[in-house]
Each structure stands twice: as structure tokens, then as C-alpha cells.
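Sequence only, no structure available. Ideas?
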Amino acid sequence: MASGSPDDSGRQAALPWTPGDVSENATEALQALDTYKKKDPSKVVVRFKAVGNAPIMRQNFYKITASNRFQAVIQFLRKELGWKAGDPLFTYINLAFSPAPDDTVSNLYKSFATEGHLIVNYSTTAAWG
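Reply:
I predicted one. C-alpha cells follow.
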């Protein structure tokens, strides 16, 4: 064997973990997954504001489940406006950016809430960006 290899001295290389640690890590990982999978029952107040020539909604405040993806907000808005899937709809947060459909309402609210509301602007044409 080449000199300097771990087997020269008859010692085994120390592993960074022991077999007992694997079961502890697996249990911890499973608990983290279970926590992630749980639906957040809390609600977020979403305020819809029309931009440009978009129709104004009669009621513009809604409570939406925080664990929903933003895609659910888009689908809800389409239903409330009576728009089909092919009709153009552009959504923005605080007149600034268009969120990804897979963002959660909770994360958007935590990061961009204004006066206790998540403000979602909507338009029939691209208004920004």
C-alpha cells in the first residue's frame, strides 16, 4: 500500500456519523416533512385593486387560507370576475412585481403586507415589468 494511506497504521478512518445517528436524522427529517405538509389554517386578508381598464370588484377584501399557493388566488380572482382561463389577467403585489404562481400566500403576506393586508393589483394588460 502507498504510504500515508489510512490503513498503514491499522486504524480505521473515523466516520462523521455513527449508525445510531442515521436513525435519529431520519426521524428528525420525517418530523420536518410532517410539519411542512401540515396546512396552515390561518387566514390572510387579501385586498384586490383594479388597474387600468380592469373591472372593479364589488367586494375587494377576502380572507384566504395562508397556506394556499398564489395560483389559488389567481383562480379565485378569475372566478370572481367571471373570466375564462384564456382571458388575459395580470396580477401584481403592491403595484411592484408579479409573484410566481407557486409562492405561498403566507410568504407573500409576511414579506409584503401593507396595513395588515396583502394588496393584489390586477389588470387585463401588462401594467409593469
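The mean pLDDT is 82.
Hope that gets you unstuck.
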